[in-house]
TrEMBL record:
It comes from Sporosarcina oncorhynchi. Gene3D superfamilies: 3.40.630.30. Pfam families: Acetyltransf_1 (PF00583). This is GNAT family N-acetyltransferase. The lineage of its organism: Bacteria, Bacillati, Bacillota, Bacilli, Bacillales. Residues 3-150 form the N-acetyltransferase domain. It comes from the Bacteria. CDD domains: NAT_SF (cd04301). InterPro entries: Acyl_CoA_acyltransferase, GNAT_dom, MshD_Acetyltransferase.
Length: 155
């Protein structure tokens, strides 16, 4: 198994746009089509496909808040076909390492829907903690992961 990240290109964007979460999760994340458009027109956001070999498994969008430079994992999803197979737990460290290298940051933020306890548990398992703040929309609790930039590991 060779899990890796690929940039979104003219060759794979339509496949990425077609990915979808389970019906009961659709209220928790924007559609990939919306996110792809956002990253196309807001250059601070980067869209990536999540692959196992040549098989597209999921999608993520990361970037930074232009107002303060905070680095965000703004979207992270595994297609419904591949959920329950451990992909989220295996891709998250790869994605976080990629972000750490790309942005040379000392913390990564994300926000979650308050009733999405499965996602919160996943992120906490990798070192994210609720920080008492809400996102820039003022609705969703934020989690933050403090990174040890000297060692490249979580604090």
């Amino acid at each position: 198994m060779s899990l890796h990240i690929r940039e979104v290109t003219a060759e794979n964007w339509l496949d990425i746009a077609s990915l979808s979460v389970d019906e009961n999760q659709k209220n928790y994340i924007e559609s990939n089509s919306f996110s792809l458009a956002q990253s196309k027109f807001e250059p601070e956001w980067k869209s990536v496909g999540l692959y196992d070999g040549n098989v597209l498994i999921g999608y993520a969008m990361h970037g930074y808040d232009k107002s303060n430079g905070d680095v965000w994992l703004d979207r992270f999803m595994i297609d419904s076909t591949f959920q329950g197979q451990g992909y989220a737990s295996r891709f998250l460290p790869i994605l976080l390492r990629h972000m750490r290298e790309l942005y040379a940051c000392d913390r990564i933020y994300l926000s979650i829907y308050p009733d999405n306890s499965r996602a919160q548990h996943l992120y906490e398992k990798f070192g994210f903690t609720l920080n008492g703040q809400v996102d820039d929309v003022g609705e969703f609790p934020c989690l933050v992961m403090e990174l040890d930039t000297d060692k490249g590991d979580n604090k």
